Structures are given as C-alpha cells and as structure tokens.
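To: structure desk
From: M.T.
Subject: fold request, one chain
Message: Could you run this one when you get a chance? Sequence is below, nothing fancy, just the single chain.
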Amino acid sequence: MDAALKQEVADCIQKVLTVFTTQYTKAYMLALVHQIEDATNEEPTQWELLERPAAERGDQKSGWLAKESVHLKKWNKRFFIFRADNRADYYENEANVAKNKLRGSLNLSGYSIIEDPNQGALIRLKRLAEKMGMDFANLPKPKEYPPLTFEVHHERRTCQYLQASSQEEFDLWVKQFRRAAWNAKGLTWDNELHQKAFPIALRRTRWELGRWGWSNAGSEEQMLAEMIADELEYDIMGRIYAKLPGAAPWFIRNKLRKMAMATIDSAVLAAVKPGWAGMRKGVEEAHPKVKPKVESSTKPLFEKKIEIKNKMKDSIMSTLEPILKDRVTPHLGKIVRIIRTPISEAFDEAIRIFEAKVDKWQPAEDQKASFSELDSLGRSWWEMRDALKKIDAIYEPLYSLRDIFTDIWPWHYVWEGHDLIYQKTDNAVYTFEQGISKGEKEVVKRDVLLKFRHDADLAIQEYCTSIMRQIVMPPFQQVLNPACKNIIEPMADLVPEPFQEFCDINEMFEDVYNGVVDDSIAVVLKSPDATDSNVTL
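Reply: Done. Structure tokens follow.
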C-alpha cells in the first residue's frame, strides 16, 4: 500500500464516519421526539399474561464442551453456562462457577453457527481465491476438524471452534448457540433512545453510501468498523488485491494480503474508537437541552408532522402503488401461507405442553423449588421441541424464495419464532406462579390458559406481519427510495424553522410507506384463503 492508497483508505474511513455522525445525531433526537410522543399518546397493553422480570430469569443451559484455544490451537475441556442475557460464560471446571473464577465469556451478537466447519472453511477459501485471482485447485487445503465440531463464526471477528461429546449433545448445543446468537444484545450503551437510534443510523448510512445491507449486530465499535470495512471492500480492496504479485505462491500473496488488512484494520480501529466516543458525548450533552424544547412544542409539532405526512402520501401514491403492486402484493399471499400454519401449530403445541406440565405440578413447602420444573419451559429446547419443530417447517419454502428476495434469511425467521414460543410460554408459567398463591390450581390454570390463547393469537399476527415486512421491504425500498427522491426532498421546506431539528423528512417518508405496506399485509392476514392465482413467483 503506497501513500496514495493509504490516503484513500483514510478518506474513505472519514467519509463513512461523517455520514454516520450526521445520521446518528438525527436518529437520536428523533427517537427522543418519538419517546415523548408515545408517552403523550400511550395506549394500554393488549397482552394479558404477565412478563417475568429480567432479574428473575435463570440460566438457559450448562455443560461441557471441548474448546480450541485461539492462539495455541490446543483442545481444552470447558464448562459452559448460558446466562439469561444470552452470554456464554465458560470455566475450567464446575467448582470455579461458585468461585466466580471465569475463564472467558462469549458475546455472540452478530455471529453465525456453522455445523460443518470443514465445509465452511472450504467455501471461504474459495471466495478468497476468487478475490485474489488464484486457482482454487492449487491452494493448500484448510485444516480438518474432527466430527461433532461446530464453529462460532464471524467474517471479521475471532472465531471459536467447539466440540461436543455426542451427536445428541452436538444438536442441543448448536441450537442453544444459534438461539443465543439471534438474541444476544450487542449494543453496550444501555440507553433506550440509543438502542433505537443506532441501528436506524447504521441502516441509513449504508443507504446513503449505496449499500443495501440489513444484517448488523455487535457492539457499537464492531458495527461501525464492519460497515467501514464493507465500504473499503467495495471501493478499494480490489485495487489492493490487484497489486499483489501474480506469480508469487499462495502463502506469499496471502501474507501480503494479511499485512494490508492489518494496516487497514489498524486505521479503522484508530478512527472508530474516538469517533464513537465523540458521538456518544455529543448526544449526551445535547439531550437535556433538546428535551425541554420538544416537550414545550409537543402538540403543534405532532400536528405539523401529520399534516406533512398526509400531503406526502397524496404526492407519492401514483409512484408508490405500481412499485407496491409489482414488488410486494403479488408475494404476500405466498409468504403468509408459508409461515402462518407452522407458527399457529407451534403455539397450539406450546399451550398443550404447558397444560400437561401444570397438570403434573404439585405445590410444595419450598415454593421456589417446586416452580423449577415449570420454569424450564421458557428455556429448554428439549421440553419445547415438539412446538419448536413446527416452526422449522418454514425454512425450506422460505429459502426457495431467495431467487426473488435476495436478502431473505430463513434461519433468522425460524429463530425469531422459537424465541417467541419461549417468551410467551415463560410468560404463561410466570403468570401461573404469581396466581397460584391466590387461588386454586384448576381455577388459576383455566385463567392462564385463556390468557395464553389470547396472547398467542396476538403474537401470531405480529410474527406474520414482522416476517412479511422483513422479506418484502428491502427490495421495495431499494426501488422506491430513488423513485421518490425528487418528490420527497422539496417537502422539507414544509417544516417550519422551529421544528426542523425535530422533524426528518426521510423518516416521515418511511412512516408513510411503512403504513401503506402494513395495510397491504393486514388485508392478506385477514384473507387466509387467498388463492395461488393471486401470487406471482
């Protein structure tokens, strides 16, 4: 990497951080506006079951795995415990758990679980050879891992290799790691507004740069660094690969590539750490100054937003409707038929499992101990397997839609469904436990079953809506946003000067078309007998 190329890397990093800083500041302030708006128009919850407080949720799974050390590449037995927050702690032995003598901890946010690490390594090596212009057949074969080994994988972070003692344990651990990776909390700043604003700012930064990726998870610094790396991969890395000596053997070319990547990673890290620290400090300082201004103008601000949204909808419908008709509505019937029956059957089975477990339950003097068997329903794959397997049925038919929806990720939707089953079942268990001290077992059980059925029906609707939106929105937005750009941007002039820092025309645009898409989804959900003739595939 010569000086000119290094400067290009530095300029690219600064460009991404500048765009993100603008988007994040705006998203944070808009999240504050929404928080105040929601508090003003707060509606009572529709859920009937009680939700177990986070502090009362127990550990999810524990047991032994062999772990390959990152540096020495030696296999060591480690005792793993999955905590309620989806963090995987591991120890040298069980005795060290009580001593709180932690050997290490894994935050799985953003990771994927690969059941066959040997096949995964071959696929990655082939992709790398293509990038570097080398013949895959002439490359050295990657290391072979023994049976029952799975990989905790990330393209740019440290990967872990773990080995189970049996096929049954392998299957259970893979499911546990996948569930944790899906649910693990990545963002480190525990601020409600930040938790909402950061992913929005990340997504909008990608869009402004012309990248339409959606899947991001990890800490703030990790996600910023990876977004910058994606931009560098797109804009600069091809030229770096092209400079590698073509006649040199693989190990030399790969060594030079790693040296270039190390230089880039160092530059990215040096920019991201202070960059993110500055952004956080900026919004923390602005928050107490902005909040009183928003609160003092709540009613006229919200009325003005409604007025602009109505004008916006009238202006874009002639552009939106043909795209909606072409990109969204033809596929909704097919998608809902794929997902509604499995999630409905999964909840039916979860309710049956809950009822059977409660029927066998007997009170005891030690009430907490007597509840332990019930508590396992909200975290044990083995006990809930008959319900969870129903949801697995959506994977294959959703995967077949990848020719149409290139951003579709079927396993994400499967694990989202699994988590929903666990969550609502645990709510039923907790509601039963809270009620049993006040009433007879059969009376409490009947009441909880009615509430469980009510919440299940509501959860099914929300799950179907969420999955359909996740599938159809990326290709829809990719076409709609450029098509409506010249219509939307002039509408920023409709925002009065006092409200300009609290209103974002692009956010209002998203609200409008999200509402239109949600209306289309609602129509399909109310028509379960839609015919295949209404579906274009």
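Reply (cont.): Confidence is low (pLDDT under 50) at residues 530-537. Let me know if you need anything else for the meeting.
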